[in-house]
């Protein structure tokens, strides 16, 4: 049976199912391009930023700014661009940015969820309507005759919409689970990168704090400096 013929025999619900399938394909293509771009560049961006933080924090900030088109670049830049924050504020900036980026990665999930829920129901509705129409045309005397055979064929055709609905839902569900897995992996990447950057920043912050204290001690221990103090 040709696809066009099956579509026609599936009834009116085949049109909304077609719309849902087109919507699903559009979301899948857009998300696939997004994830390809992210996964192809992410590791390099993370490594460059982490290497820079061990030598020059200004350079690390600039690398993150150049990688602003990448979620992990925006994630780390939010904290790196702060002006000498305390470690708690640095951590808070990382957590807030991670939440925003993860939410952005879930774009399209609501559409796929709606398709997964609606497609089987629309297919079932089409089948029920087809059965009502077919069974309403069957009379007791028609059983066993050619008209009865046609009615049986009509019952089979009414199941086309259910099959179509299940196919659309399964297609959407398969990609939905793939994208969910990618988001979960990204959360782990963000956690590892954020923890390492935070640890390096805490070490830098403590070192700068100790250096400032030592400078103050040296300054006040200098007799010429003490004479100039106003009490």
Offer a quick outline of the entry:
The chain has 231 residues and is an all-alpha fold. Helix content is 84%, strand content 0%.
Give the tags.
single chain; mainly alpha; 9 helices; 0% strand
Describe this structure in words.
This protein is an all-alpha fold and 231 residues long. The protein has one domain. Helix content is 84%, strand content 0%. The protein is built from 9 helices and no strands. The mean pLDDT is 85.
What share of residues are in beta strands? Answer: under 5%
Rounded to the nearest angstrom, the distance between the terminal CA atoms is 99 Å
Mean pLDDT: 85
Number of helices: 9
Tell me the helix content.
over 70%
Order of helices and strands: HHHHHHHHH
Class by helix and strand content?
mainly alpha
Total strand count, please?
0
Rg measurement, Å = 32 Å
Unreliable spans are none
Number of domains: 1
Described by strand count, sense and barrel closure, the largest sheet is:
none
How do the strands and helices of this protein lay out in sequence?
Elements: H1 3-9, H2 14-53, H3 57-66, H4 71-80, H5 87-105, H6 109-136, H7 146-158, H8 160-221, H9 223-227
Helix pairs in contact: 2-3, 2-6, 2-8, 3-4, 4-5, 5-8, 6-7, 6-8
């Amino acid at each position: 049976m040709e696809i066009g013929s099956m579509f026609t025999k599936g009834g009116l619900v085949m049109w909304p199912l077609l719309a849902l399938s087109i919507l699903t394909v559009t979301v899948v293509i857009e998300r696939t391009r997004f994830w390809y771009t992210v996964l192809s560049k992410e590791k390099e961006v993370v490594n460059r930023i982490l290497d820079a933080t061990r030598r020059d924090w200004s350079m690390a900030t600039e690398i993150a700014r150049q990688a602003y088109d990448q979620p992990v670049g925006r994630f780390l830049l939010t904290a790196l661009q702060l002006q000498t924050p305390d470690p708690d504020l640095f951590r808070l900036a990382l957590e807030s940015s991670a939440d925003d980026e993860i939410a952005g990665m879930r774009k399209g999930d609501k559409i796929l969820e709606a398709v997964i829920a609606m497609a089987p129901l629309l297919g079932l509705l089409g089948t029920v309507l087809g059965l009502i129409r077919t069974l309403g045309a069957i009379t007791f005397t028609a059983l066993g005759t050619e008209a009865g055979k046609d009615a049986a064929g009509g019952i089979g055709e009414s199941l086309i919409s259910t099959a179509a609905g299940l196919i659309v839902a399964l297609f959407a569900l398969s990609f939905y689970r793939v994208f969910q897995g990618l988001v979960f992996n990204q959360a782990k990447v963000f956690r590892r990168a954020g923890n390492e950057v935070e640890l390096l920043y805490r070490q830098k912050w403590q070192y700068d704090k100790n250096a400032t204290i030592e400078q103050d001690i040296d300054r006040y221990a200098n007799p010429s400096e003490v004479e100039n103090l106003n009490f």
